[in-house]
Write a structure and sequence with these properties.
Elements lengths: L3 E4 L6 H12 L2 E4 H10 L3 H11 L6 H14 L6 E4 L5 H13 L6 E6 L2 H12 L10 H15 L1 H7 L4 E5 L4 H19 L1
Parallel strand pairs: 1-3, 1-4, 2-3, 4-5
The structure holds BIS(adenosine)-5'-pentaphosphate (AP5).
The site of BIS(adenosine)-5'-pentaphosphate (AP5) has 29 residues, from helix 1, helix 2, helix 3, helix 6 and helix 9.
Length: about 200
């Protein structure tokens, strides 16, 4: 199996690049944001609980998202590997992910961390908010809260994986194709080393 985490702040391009990477490398895409939005659309109890937090730009409780990832791993026993997008977002989530993967006799091979300036993040998200149904993109103060949550709780997750020499930082500004090429090169290198 080959498992990768696509890491980075809100608006850094994780969703955009994930679509291209899963097509190229045949991995199963697991986006906790997408799963939560689908729960909201389906009006589930979990979706209702998550919606008020997401609308404020705050993280959903660890236990909720860890449960979602556990279920997703169990439902995809034959996956060639997973691309985690928007997860893990806290050190507790990272510990839980390591334990879940270890139960399945696998682990994270690489963490690709997209680096984008704050002004570019805000610009991209406000721009998407003009046309998408993402309510958390419409208001600059909610976008600010999302970036703050990232800085306070999520950025440290990179340190967790740096201890194991698994993090590669990738400049996330430029064309989508240029960034995709850089990500693909790093994945191919790691696939060669890890067999
Ligand atoms: P989530 O859905 O994960 O959203 P996010 O992290 O805020 O990230 P985005 O989807 O907004 O951005 P992205 O990095 O994927 O960039 P994208 O490719 O879309 O989370 C939403 C919420 O759910 C959280 O706030 C939280 O409440 C909750 N949640 C989710 N996971 C959780 C977890 N693990 N724990 C707790 N809570 C959780 O691109 C953004 C825009 O930029 C697009 O319009 C795109 O077209 C554009 N763009 C992309 N690349 C480029 C480029 N190279 N140049 C110019 N524009 C670009």
């Amino acid at each position: 199996m080959f498992n990768l985490i696509l890491f980075g702040p809100p608006g850094s391009g994780k969703g955009t690049q994930s679509e291209k990477l899963i097509a190229r490398f045949g991995l199963k895409h697991l986006s906790t944001g997408d799963i939560l939005r689908s729960e909201i659309r389906n009006g589930t109890a979990l979706g209702l609980e998550a919606k008020s937090l997401m609308d404020q730009g705050k993280l959903v409780p660890d236990a909720v998202v860890i449960g979602m990832i556990r279920a997703a791993l169990d439902h995809n026993p034959n996956a060639k590997g997973f691309l985690f997008d928007g997860f893990p977002r806290t050190n507790a989530q990272a510990d839980a992910l390591d334990a879940l993967l270890s139960e399945k006799k696998t682990s994270i091979n690489i963490v690709l961390a997209l680096q984008v300036s704050k002004s570019e993040l805000v610009k991209r998200l406000l721009n998407r908010g003009l046309t998408s149904d993402r309510t958390d993109d419409r208001d600059e103060s909610i976008i600010g809260s999302r970036i703050e949550e990232y800085e306070r709780k999520t950025a440290a997750v990179a340190d967790h994986y740096r201890k194991f020499n698994k993090v590669v930082f990738i400049p996330g500004e430029g064309s989508v194709d240029e960034i995709f090429a850089k990500l693909s090169t790093e994945i191919e290198k790691r696939m060669t080393v890890d067999g």
